[in-house]
Design brief:
- The protein is built from 8 helices and no strands.
- It is elongated.
- The termini are far apart.
Length: 162
């Protein structure tokens, strides 16, 4: 191994820490998610064991052991599986934020409905207009925000289909 090919001690520590962090992410998975990932038996057993440990120092040692096991395992497929598990909540959050943002725009600006229908032609423009008008009246009258919620629900259904 040439001088240019050697990995520095700092870089090795970063790699080890990254593998331990990956092990911690694995330890936080549900049983079903953990079962869906192909793992060596020794790693799976260590992950199941860390869930039973409550003492701080014992848990820390077990996580170090998991990190040691992870050094002998190809982490790329494990990382890919974790990313797929985390993609669904991120998608859900993005949809929530988009629906909430559009709802606020629709309530704040009458021209936003035209823009929304142009961007989403499958949307029921007259129904949304009716909900927006009702939500604005509810807000002005201090009534419960029923139409406000219905706008969000209609937007979510539309975004889920898209």
């Amino acid at each position: 191994m040439g001088r240019d090919e050697r990995i520095s001690k700092t870089q090795r520590k970063k790699q080890v820490t990254a593998l331990q962090d990956l092990g911690e992410e694995l330890a936080r998975l549900t049983d079903d998610q953990l079962a869906a990932i192909e793992l060596p038996d020794i790693l799976r057993d260590a992950l199941l064991e860390v869930r039973r440990i409550s003492a701080f120092e014992a848990r820390r040692r077990q996580m170090q052991y998991i990190g040691k096991i992870m050094r002998k395992v190809d982490a790329a497929p494990i990382r890919a599986a974790l990313d797929t598990f985390q993609a669904a909540p991120r998608r859900e959050t993005a949809l929530h934020k988009r629906a909430d943002s559009w709802r606020e725009r629709l309530l704040a600006d009458q021209a936003a409905l035209t823009e929304f229908v142009r961007e989403y032609p499958e949307a029921d423009g007259p129904q949304l207009q009716k909900l927006v008008d009702t939500a604005l009246r509810e807000r002005a009258g201090g009534r419960p925000p029923r139409a406000f919620r219905q706008i969000y629900q209609a937007l979510r259904v539309l975004f889920d289909k898209a």
